[in-house]
Amino acid sequence: MNAEPVDELLSDIPAVTEFHAESASRVDAHWGEAREPFTFKRELPLRPESIIIDLRGFTRIVWQSITPSPELAKIYAELSELRELIQERPTIRPTILTSLGTTGLALTRPIAIVIEEWDSECLARWPEGQATGRGISEPAAIESLRHDIAFLYADLMDTDDSAMIPELRVVRDVLRATVKG
Amino acid sequence: MGKLNLRPRDVTHALENKLAIAFRDGPERNGWYVLDGRKVHRFTIPHVHGRWGPGTFNDIVRQSALSKDEFKSLVDCPLKANDYEALIRERKQLGVS
Questions:
Q1: Residues 114-153, chain A: which have Cβ within 8 Å of B?
Q2: ipTM
Q3: Which SS3 state, helix, strand or coil, does residue A48 take?
Q4: What are the pLDDT digits (tens) for A64-90?
Q5: At residue B84, what are phi and psi to the nearest 5 degrees?
């Protein structure tokens, strides 16, 4: 058996696909032969300790867990929280909507909308008109937005001034100026 | 501010029962929050068994004119219907009828 420091060797090693734990603080990574699969906790602070190539040519990395100082533990916790927060944030970008598709209505001018792409869904919003569409993709969200605009237009055109607050009258006026039947 | 961790059924229940939103069914559910006989703002929510991702929850919070914490209180119960009404009157400068 041959054991040696590994930091500089790791870049040459292909992705490790199987792991098993020998103790709570030590995780071994193996490849080259079948082993029992181990669910590797990526957030566990680990560093490679050594690489071992046995007589049959199988290679093994020994991962040593790092026991963090209280300060480091706090940083790990904050990083985990930050990672969670980032995953909750969408990618946001503006775009232009030029038609209301199959709704039977038309736009008098192109309108500025916002696309929010989340991990599992997409939202298309028209802030000025207070309309939103949702879908599993951007085209689906935009199509849903078109129908939401049509729904809101029909609803507000049918509502008396006295039956809506002033803020909503502004939205109704925006719709009246932007959408034609 | 963490995740909302709310269930679609609880959100729908709170909007329908606490805020008396009468949803109209379609591809999505649409309904108005009405105060003093006037439409104030609209809620558009998916059906209970539809897709409720974090973007959808965020959008519903935005529609409610509340912060995430306030919305959670609305759904989890501490924030009552009249508390919500008072907040909306203040935020939309609607006065008391």
A1: 116, 118-123, 125, 130, 132, 134, 136, 144, 147-148, 151-152
A2: 0.84
A3: strand
A4: 666 667 787 788 778 878 877 777 788
A5: -60, -45
Alpha-carbon span A119 to B54, nearest angstrom: 9
| Dihedral angle over CA of A107, A166, B44, A178, nearest 10 | 0
Find which of B1, B5, B59, B88 to mutate to test the A interface (most A CBs within 10 Å of its CB).
B59
Nearest to A128 by CA among A113, A116, A110, A140: A113
Q: Bridge partners of A91?
A: A117
pLDDT digits (tens, 9 = 90+) for B34-85: 998 999 999 999 887 777 888 899 999 999 999 888 999 999 888 888 888 8
Amino acid identity of B43?
Answer: F
Share of chain A above pLDDT 90, in %: 40
Between CA A161 and CA A156 the distance in angstroms is: 9
Secondary structure (DSSP) of B28-58:
SEEEEEEETTEEEEEEEE--TTS---HHHHH
Q: Are A175 and A108 in contact (CB under 8 A)?
A: no
- Burial of A101-114, coded b for 16+ CB within 10 Å and e otherwise, reads eebebeeeeebebe
